[in-house]
Amino acid sequence: MPDTEQREHPGHRVYERYVALGDSQTEGVGDGDDTTGLRGWADRLAELLAAADPALRYANLAVRGRVARQVRAEQLEPALALRPDLVTVVAGVNDILRPRYDAAEVAGELEAMFAALTASGAHVVTLAFPDLSKIAPMARPLAPRLTDLNARVQAAASRHGVTVVETGGYAVTTDPRLWTVDRLHAGPLGHERIAAAVAHTLCLPGSDDTWTHPLPPLSAPGTVQALTAELRWAAGFLGPWIGRRLRGRSSGDGRSAKRPQLLPVGLTGPQAPDPSAACGR
Predict the structure, then answer these.
(1) Residues 6+ apart with CB under 8 A from 99
(2) How far is the first Cα of the chain from the last one, in angstroms, to the nearest whole number?
(3) Rounded to whole angstroms, how far apart are CA atoms 255 and 45?
(4) Tell me, what DSSP letter sits at residue 235?
(5) How many helices (H) and strands (E) does the chain have?
């Protein structure tokens, strides 16, 4: 159990130890770079949590390229050792992209993490994934896998009292402006929306449902333009990704967690919400 007494503010629970587990999305790929530093939705969420309680400490154990089995093997025990009271666990998309995908195995790895972390007393949060085929049409064959994984995660979450943030249920989540050009990682606006979605689900002060609101409409590309974009994406991102898989390589090879210890959060992003504001629903 966490070593600090849990305090409550009206309308929401106050957290003091937040640990993030996962792959590239949680690491923050797409929001910043390896030179200037990655931010990402978990960092953004930590800033919102710290606005409600500056005593919050935050660790991020996520590493790009990790499949669910690796997240459990490499990150679960270090996370438990930090005795968090809030944990986010987001993994599985890297598994879906692989030819040898075992849905039951992936769901089992996630459920094992849910079970261990909730048993420790932590509040565990996970995400439902949006439809990748609406972001990258060439990924349409993967849509059934994603739908099935979301259902399995929902079932496992309900068995262990895990909170599921329904980011996949809103059209804006597949707006290309929320994604980087590789269509696999959220861009800064996407990471901002994910953080806002989790904050709203946790009923943090100042949070509301504006993260679900659509962006101004875009004119639809013509057929030739759309096809050209797909071919460029396949050549620039899908091909190299397949090449790494065939060579047994991962984008995360040789990498470790960017923030392995619980540290105070520095509010370096946009102005945090007013903690005295009412939680929107």
Answers:
(1) 245
(2) 30
(3) 23
(4) I
(5) 10, 10
